[in-house]
Amino acid sequence: MNIQKIADMTGVSKTTVSRVINQEKYVSSEIREKVLRVIEETGYVPNGNAINLSKGKSNTIGVTLPYNNLCYQSLINSILDQANLNGQKVLLLPTYHEEKIEFDYFSLLEQKTIDSLILTTRTSNIEAWEALNMKGKIISTEKLISDKIPMIYSDRQRCYELLFAELKNAHDTDIVFTVQRGVARSQSTFDKVKAFEMYFGKAIEGRDYYTNISGYEIGKEWVLKTFSNKKIPEVFYINGDDTAAGVLKGLEHLGYQHNHDFLLIGEGNTTFSEVLDFSTIDFTPQKIGEEVVNFVCGKMAESNKKYEPKIIWRLNE
Q: Could you tell me the keywords of this UniProt record (predicted)?
């Protein structure tokens, strides 16, 4: 069944059937009811993409994210809430850090499946973003090298520098930090390593920092495997509160006491860090999520804005 068959059965033109489907004016109530009755009787389901193309709008925001990770939970929840307030649907687009998958999602703008695209993770495909910015609004929640793409982000690089500076001033020199991706694949990791080296010298992978660490179970297993037979560092700076919670559990299993034998710092300011009482960093995801939605919905003109993260110290002895 298609529009032409609906038109033949009702004795009207394809244009009239299209106007009824798209809820446009200039169709009499009698004709509208006749077309809708045939659509219901035949069970015809209009092609959503065709409708979007005819309207030029889908009222849908696409949001890329690496995968379903607690690090993005507050940001995604903020985007969902604000989109709902603006009468928008949200399509979550997991990329798994693969550029080809990200590029495939860009075609959704061209097809009018989505009206706009919010990027929560980085890719090297900057040129593609700039070209597709003509197809719909695109904005990043992380800082990009190119200033041609709008961005509202948390100044993570500055926060890393402040954190390592404070640790240096506190005479904490034995520090280990974890990341998910290596320096070559992640700008955030590159910034973190660079900030570390400003105060503590050359950062060596496998000694000063460890990659591919993400999630409660992996954090716990990493600690048990790495520090069962050697001295633990003074400070663990962990990428994500959920991962930090696993690290804490692993260290407790080894007989160490938090804020006595070691200092633990997570990221995200989630319930994990609050309940387990370890330090963390708030990257202001709620505010960023709200503003990127307002931008793509045309309610906010400013498109290059940064927020200062907050280091939340919990140092109870």
A: DNA-binding, Transcription, Transcription regulation
CA distance 299 to 66: 27
Residue 78: how many other CB atoms lie within 10 Å: 20
What is the average pLDDT across 266-290?
A: 96
CA 214 from centre of chain: 15
* DSSP per-residue string spanning 31-56: HHHHHHHHHHHHT----HHHHHHHHT
pTM value is: 0.80
CA distance 210 to 181: 9
> What is each CA distance from 199 to 95, 181, 195, 261, 287, in whole angstroms?
34, 22, 7, 23, 31
- The architecture CATH gives domain 60-154+285-307: 3-Layer(aba) Sandwich (3.40)
Class of domain 156-282: alpha beta
Average pLDDT over residues 96-120: 85
Report how far residue 211's alpha carbon sits from residue 205's, in angstroms, rounded to the nearest whole number.
8
